[in-house]
Design brief:
The chain is of the alpha+beta class and 399 residues long. Strands 1, 2, 5, 6, 7, 9 and 10 form a 7-stranded mixed sheet that branches. It has a 4-stranded antiparallel sheet with strand order 4-3-8-11.
Length: 399
């Protein structure tokens, strides 16, 4: 019964408030073709812009991003660079920085397509992911995912641009997970918590149900999650799963888990009281209540309830998956196909991660039993520390 209460509570936290800014290393751009001119608006979180300079301040972020984009984003037509206007900062929502880019090419882009090189942030963060949406004449659009390995894409041409198909969104979902260390860390922590192949499969199924439900609610237009809160919750899920995995192996007393979770949850509470938290009150209070309830479970019970907990935590991760698509402003009539392909890509990445975990587990069986136990403990503790780091850091994001 407690497990189902926790699921409901996690759902309330995910649904709580309107969208905010991402804290993962990702950015967005929207491009429009008009004759020989290509215009784009580049958007990224202010926290990410601080990576570009050690002396970055809130007042210099616009200029810092504009300068960076001038050096890393270019457009060429038939091998000849298009003339670039000076990047122009735009008004942005709290926590974001937006810059307008304009390129003037020699000929109409409909007659001769251009190549965009979007290399921003990859040198500072090789795992960075950029989502671009290109609008063409006639209302057609394409969504593109740029990574450090592939960040060039074509714009224009005489043939009408076909809308992004299911396969392209599948790739978006696949790379979104594989490029997101927090999602991968949770899958590893969940496998450790499950403790056995059969329960791990059920837990993975629960995780699928959870994030599929969230994605479905987004597709129906009933949910627009608070992404800042979601990113913090993802860190919390990693810490919880890893901590409970360690407690269940160590046979620690239940009050140890309660005390640990209460201490972790108290950090954003104190930050909220001090006025330096990125999370709304309802989310902070919900996290604290969840920690108090979860502390009553104990590691052994948490292991038994791993599929239920995975379903609850899948709600938060699903909101994180959907956030990337929401930022692209995909038309409502195409959002269902986008989310279906994206979700299939997420599932493929999850299965790939579980296959790697299973292969490593089989290989580790050749090690002496004490070495196996210590290795699992070390991994659990490392994941717990990483989850706490993400949770606390994202709770304090205030730029």
């Amino acid at each position: 019964m407690i497990g189902w209460r926790l699921l409901g509570l996690l759902a309330a936290l995910v649904l709580a408030t309107p969208a905010a800014a991402h804290t993962r290393s990702q950015s967005y751009s929207r491009w429009t073709v008009q004759g020989a001119t290509l215009g784009g608006v580049f958007q990224v979180s202010a926290q990410r812009v601080t990576q570009l300079g050690e002396d970055a301040t809130f007042d210099t972020l616009d200029a810092l991003l504009a300068s960076h984009l001038a050096q890393t984003v270019s457009v060429s037509q038939d091998g000849v660079p298009c003339a670039a206007d000076a990047p122009r900062p735009l008004a942005a929502a709290r926590g974001d920085v937006r810059v307008e880019l304009v390129f003037d090419c020699a000929r109409s882009l409909a007659e001769s397509p251009a190549t965009v090189v979007a290399g921003a942030f990859f040198e500072a963060s090789p795992s960075h992911v950029h989502y671009a949406r290109v609008a063409h004449a006639g209302g057609q659009a394409q969504e593109i995912l740029a990574t450090v390995r592939s960040h060039e894409f074509a714009v224009g041409g005489s043939d009408p641009a076909a809308p992004t198909d299911l396969a392209a969104f599948f790739r978006l979902g696949l790379e979104h997970v594989l490029s997101g260390i927090d999602h991968l860390a949770f899958i590893v922590a969940l496998a450790l918590l499950a403790g056995g192949f059969g329960r791990a499969v059920w837990a993975a199924t629960g995780f699928t149900v959870g994030h599929s439900l969230t994605l479905g609610l987004v597709a129906a237009g009933w949910l627009r999650p608070d992404v800042a809160s979601v990113e913090a919750l993802i860190g919390f899920t990693v810490a919880f799963a890893a901590g409970e995995a360690f407690a269940s192996r160590d046979r620690a007393a239940s009050h140890v888990g309660w005390a640990t979770l209460a201490l972790v949850a108290a950090i954003p509470l104190m930050a909220r009281i001090a006025g330096v938290s990125a999370l709304p009150w309802i989310v902070v209070i919900g996290i604290c209540v969840f920690a108090l309830c979860a502390g009553r479970l104990g590691g052994t019970t948490s292991r038994r309830l791993a599929p239920v907990l995975a379903t609850a935590f899948g709600l938060a991760h699903g909101a994180g998956f959907a956030g990337a698509l929401l930022e692209l402003d995909i038309p409502r009539e195409r959002l269902l196909i986008a989310l279906l392909g994206f979700n299939l890509g997420v599932e493929a990445a999850q299965l790939l991660a579980l296959a790697v975990i299973a292969a490593v587990a089989i290989a580790c069986r050749r090690l002496p039993t004490p070495v196996q136990a210590r290795t699992m403990d070390y991994v659990s503790v490392a994941l717990f520390a990483l989850g706490v780091y993400w949770f606390v850091g994202r709770s304090f994001a205030t730029a």
